[in-house]
Amino acid sequence: MGYDAQVINLIREASGRPVVQMRRVIAGTVAKMIKQARSTSSGADLLEGSALSLRLEDLTKREHQVFELLIKGLANKEIAAELGISPRTVEIHRARMLAKMGVSTGSELMRLIVRNISNARI
């Protein structure tokens, strides 16, 4: 496992083996659940019809972008590169987004989404 692209490359070169980040594995699992639940991979669609969808409506455009990239398993630095903003700015948007969603970590957000998908299937 590695934190960012630089660490991943160092470990890959030193070990001669592929490096897999746990958040990518979790995001991949959630993505499979999303595909089974719906034909779209949008995080907003996952929460449609739930109390969480109301929270999602309170997000700013940038917080919504951070939300979508976060549930795809991207780290703050990767989100920053994708959006063309600084990692510190991502941290601020992420913290505000998580607070509005009623969780304190990205992992809690993923659990909330998975729980929502599971309840929708029942």
Describe the secondary-structure layout.
Elements: H1 5-15, H2 22-37, H3 43-46, H4 51-57, H5 61-70, H6 76-83, H7 87-101, H8 106-121
Helix pairs in contact: 2-8, 5-7, 6-7
Written account of the structure:
Pfam families: GerE (PF00196). This is HTH luxR-type domain-containing protein. Keywords: DNA-binding, Transcription, Transcription regulation. The chain is mainly α and 122 residues long. It has one domain: Orthogonal Bundle (Arc Repressor Mutant, subunit A), CATH 1.10.10.10. Helix content is 71%, strand content 0%. The chain has 8 helices and no strands. It has helices at 5-15, 22-37, 43-46, 51-57, 61-70, 76-83, 87-101, 106-121. Helix 2 runs parallel beside helix 8 (106-121). The longest helix has 16 residues, at 22-37. It is flat, with a radius of gyration of 15 Å.
In short:
The chain has helices at 5-15, 22-37, 43-46, 51-57, 61-70, 76-83, 87-101, 106-121.
Tally of domains: 1
- Share of helix among residues? over 70%
Task: Indicate the structural class.
Answer: mainly alpha
CATH architecture: Orthogonal Bundle
End-to-end CA span: 35 Å
CATH superfamily grouping: Winged helix-like DNA-binding domain superfamily/Winged helix DNA-binding domain
Tell me what portion of residues adopts beta-strand conformation: under 5%
Based on the structure, what is the oligomeric state of the protein chains? single chain
3D shape = flat
Largest sheet: none
What is the helix tally?
8
Tell me the Rg in angstroms.
Answer: 15 Å
CATH topology: Arc Repressor Mutant, subunit A
Tell me the name of the CATH class.
Mainly Alpha
Unreliably modeled segments: none
| Strand element count | 0
Written as H for each helix and E for each strand, in order along the chain, the element string is HHHHHHHH
